[in-house]
Every structure is written in structure tokens, then in C-alpha cells.
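Pair request: fold both.
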Amino acid sequence: MPDASFLSWPFFEPRHREHALQLDRWAADALETVDHHAPDAACRTLVAVLGREGWLEATAPPPEQPEARVDVRTIALSRETLARHDGLADFAFAMQGLGAGPMSLFGSIEQRQEWVSLTRAGTAIAAFALTEAASGSDVAAITSTARRDGRGWVLDGEKTWISNGGLADVYVVFARTGEAPGAKGLSAFIVPAATPGLLVLERLHAMAPHPLARLRFDGCRLPQSALIGAAGDGFRIAMATLDVFRPTVGAAALGFARRALDEAVEVCRGRQRFGGALAQLQMVQAHLADMAVDIDASALLVYRAAWAKDTGAARVTREAAMAKLYATEAAQRVIDASVQLHGGEGVRSGHIVERLYREIRALRIYEGASDVQRVVIARAVLAGDGAA
């Protein structure tokens, strides 16, 4: 049984503990047969299963309850639990939340009823289309445009490294509408996958298989109702959405790290070297101790950020950046140490720690690379911003 003592921390309510334990029991049985060699098919299946079993309800509040708020702690616990069992399951869950996030947080009741009801049920796959080739972490540099045309909009431009690209049923796309220079001139739009002019230019293949693509929007005509919020609100919508989901990236990293430590402890207890178990060597014990400290420190930062958001903080940019930065970097260290302790088996293709080694690397880049998080934290420190 993996360590669940952290669930007794004061960040959590009884419902959070019960959710995490139930999901863990379900995942142990349901995720053993996920085929990572066919990521598109696997993600479709995972979204459908997660929706059918009700787990995707955590990704967004019910559309018919406009006053309801997303529970970041539940999302984070879900991501940690799923990531510990299977990285692709975590991806499928997380992208439903992030893709629908702008709609669930800022959309009209009609937009939420049309799309969020489907993403929560697992009957529609969502995608968050923000990144461009020249504006990865610099959102204000987006060049895709949406111009007014009669009662609607015409969308042009390209996006790249879009998770669920080519697989999604609906995209939330950020484009320049020109109300002001830079970040203040962006807007967010709902773009169904069947929209004429939406083209999948290229499927992108990463070291850990996930559905990723480069997209083009070539004169896509959108109704006025496709606009989320008001024109010019796009940057605020994107950043507020990332405030919610960025700590949960740290939670996924935490899940990977916990699995890596569990695997390392098992192999060190059973592997015989120098006349005894590997676990008896002081240097090995030092590695395990460092791994355990990194994991607990990550968990404290991740769930501090989630708790702060859930208990009323308007923005948790600083806390979210700290959580993502530390947890993803720490997980890389933990997983690398686990590979080392496994010896040759740790780099054998298909071994669980080899898969974790490939899975963790992208988390230090997407939703704001580690160095960008350092910039965010430093600016907050220099501005004198304390914890939320």
C-alpha cells in the first residue's frame, strides 16, 4: 500500500481523503491494461472510462450550478493518484480539465451547458490551444488573429504542441483581437473540431507518447457566441485558468515521484549486493532519504497552493509557480535516483522507472517552463507579494 499519511494533513477535508482512496482502488484495477503504443486510442478509451465512472466530474463544476467553484485539491489529488498508476490516464484527465477550464471558469451558462457537460461526461474531448512557435511561455507575443466580420469572427493563425491536437472535439483558442497592444489585446474562443478551416498540419511525437499536434486556423468563421467572456479578456482568462491547473502539474509530478520511490524501495529490499540487501548500504539509504524529503516538500507546496485557491485566494500565481517548479524538478531527481538504484533494469525499455523517466521530462516545460516559473516567483518577491 503506497504511503497515504499525507491525507491526514490539515489541507484536506474528509471528502478529499475519501476521493483519493476510492480513486486509488479503482485505478489499481482499471488501469493495468492501458496500451501506450496507441496513444490516440488509449486516450479516447481513458476519457470515456473516466467519464463513465464519474471521475471527470472533478475537472469542472456542474454547468447548471453557476455559483459552484472548481475544487483544486480534488483535481490535484486525482492527478497525483492517476499519475502514480499511469501517466496517460493522468494526461487524459488533466486535459479535460485544462481544455474546458476557460469555459467552466468564464463561459456563459449556454457555453457550459453545450460543452462542459460533455467534457465532464467524457463524451467530448477538450483541448487548450495557447502555444505558438514563437510564443511558448510569452503569451503576450501570440500572433494568431481573430477579426470581427459581421456578427461573428474570422480566426487565422497556427498553434503548436497542442495536447489532444487532432483528437479533440472542441478547442479553446487564444488569438489577438487588437483591443490594446500585447497581453491586453487577446481573446478566447470556442472552436469545435468540425469548424471549416481548422487543419491538423502535423502530429508531433514526444519521448513519452501523447496526442500532440500543430494546428492551422485558415479563415475559420465563428459566431459571436464562440467568444468566452469579453473581447480583450483572453490573457486574464488564460492566466486564471493556469492558476488553477498549474499546481496540479506539480501533483502529477508528485504521483510519478511516489511511484518511483515505491519501486526503488522494493528493489532495494530485494536486490542482494555485497552480502546483503541493497537497502542495508548507507549510501543507498541516503538516496532513499533524499527522495522521501523531496516528495514531502513537493506535496507541501502543491497542496498549499491548492488549499489557498480553494479557500478564497483570488490569485495564487506565486504559490502555483512554486509548486510546479519545485515538484517537477524534485520528481526528476527522484526518478533519476530510482533509475540509478535499479541498475541496468532501470533503463530497459518498458520498465516502469524507464517510462517514468520519459514521462517526467515534459512536465518541466509545459504550462510554463521551470525558468519561467523562477521569473514569476522572483517578480513576486521583488514586488513584496506574500503568500495569498
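--- second member of the pair ---
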Amino acid sequence: MLDRRQEILKTLRATPAVLRALGAGVDEDRLRRRPAPGEWAIIEVVGHLADTDERALARVRRMLAEDDPELAPFDQEALAEERRYLDLDLNQELARLEELRRDHLAVLEALDESGWERTAR
């Protein structure tokens, strides 16, 4: 039987290593080339994942500290412009994602059943 919680944790653990492997040897032009108008380049996706993990971890912590908090949305396109995703360094962003993901996993792995059932709006 599929254990959803374990599958989530397994995917969260694996993602940084998979991204590092996929990015190995990719030249700078390809790393920063957008495949089509409105689509993101590889480096933009990595920056977005790190920023999203940072926000998700903050949200989880807030959900654990407060009862049913209201979580404000964020504008991913504005954040991409503000942080200049196309100019980011791939190795620095992967390292940032790995660190954030370790912290995120530590919080999630420590949760009991009731922690996994916490909600937010």
C-alpha cells in the first residue's frame, strides 16, 4: 500500500540530487535559454524551486505555530524579476535548495500524525 507521507518525503529528499545530476554539464547558453515565450529557462526553474521551498517551509512553520492561519500568496513572476533568476549561479542555487530542503525535511520528519493534519487558508 502506498504511504503518501513517505512518498512525499522521498520525493523531497531526491529532488535536489536529481536537479544537480540533470544540470551537470549543461552549458551556460542552454542553462539560460527560455525554450519558448512565457516559459522559464533551467536556471529560472531552479531559482523558483529554491524560493518556493523557502516559502513553503515558512508556511509549514506558521501552520504548526498557529491554528488555521491565512497564508498570503506570492507573485512568482514578480519574484523571478526581482531576484533576476536569469542571472543566478546554478551551483549556488542548488546549494541553497539543498540547505532549505534539509531544513524542510527535518521539520516534516519530526511531525506526528496530528502535525501532518494541520491546516491553513
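Observation on the second member. The longest helix spans residues 42-65.
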